[in-house]
Design brief:
alpha+beta, Heat Shock Protein 90, 3 domains, 5-stranded antiparallel beta sheet, 5-stranded mixed beta sheet
Length: 447
Amino acid sequence: MKSYRRRFVAFNMLLIGIVLIVSFTALGIYMYRSELRELEKTMELVVEPWEGPGEKHNHGGPEQPASPDESQSPEAPPTGKPDGRPDGEPGARPDGEKPFRRIADEGIVTVFYNSETGDTSILSNRFSADDETVAAAVAELLPREEEFGRLHDLGLIYLREGVGTNYKIALADTEYIASRTLRNVFQLALVFVGAMGLFFGISVLLSRIAARPMENAVEMERQFVQDISHDLKTPVTVVLANNSILRSNPNASFEEQRQWLDSTDDAAHSMMDLVNQMLTLSSLDAGAADGNKKSVDLTAVNISQAAEKSVLQMESVAYDRGVELASAIGEGITALSDHASVEKIMSGLIENALKYEPDGGRVEVELSKTRKKARFTVRNLGSLIDEEDLPHIFERFYRGDKARSEKGHGLGLPILKRTAELAGAELTVTSSKESGTVFTAVFDTQE
């Protein structure tokens, strides 16, 4: 069972690990793209709004005539804050859009470029880019159609805004995004480790719960083998011993050998009885293979007549045992069940009570109806079941006290229990000094 639990945990953790890795990979890609989008928006703020000499910012549209009072030189940076944001609330969009969560712009270089004169002016340099790198970046990005992109050879990300011959360009080091991505990956890794640890504990707990029915089944199988071996060992030993005696006296007469032959016959009948009970129980289990649901056709059964018939059949047994068999059976009680099963349950309970009631004792049988239920009870006062044995009384091969273990194989009551379940009845037992041992079968009545 330990190896089964280990395999269960390993398979569970493998499956969970794959799911988490796929999920976190998708989340990491989403976070990376989100960081890239935020960088792009921040770079847009850096380059907006701006006014070139004699031109209004129109995102690359046709040139607008300059106003007479516009005298700012191309080399001069646009008015406003050093990073290109207009005066006012930080992070506010000039077009009135709702502010978004900005990433810091400390790693952004702002460049002003005039394509006619070829002049390049660094308006702000937040990560100390040298002039050669800036010039190479401007030369590489100007021919591109994309206004936002990556310069892989230089390790830069750019955003370009152009008005006529004037361009305002924002450059960011790719290490900036890489560092933020690495931080996100580290956080996801911590979450992954924590989640795997949590799921490991849950998997261990679930493995114990999942393995419990199997462990019980294995234990029941082991106990079954022990019990069946014990019940077969005695009669087989008797048969072998009797045969040995018979072979040692080949010239003895039949009458002289009768006791050994009778003993062999009794042992064979005992084994046959055990085999028949096991076959009966196996057949009942097969009938209840759909989850212990009722597997027989339930019809209207006059259980009053069935109870009277069962009592009548057992009167001779009670007489031989010197046991008083008293009955109080209500008339005309009808239940939804199976006729053969009802008679088997009633006769079996009465026979069981007579078997364990001491000579001269009393067994009481009663059938009554309360609302939509019919209760058939068999009570014997002279034989009690120990409290620790009571919960196991319907288990197969279970024989608690010595007196009961000597009078059967421990299959009679389990057979009656299974028969009752298939017939739509409920079989219970109580035992105390005040009320004796009481077996009760409850049936659903037909109104």
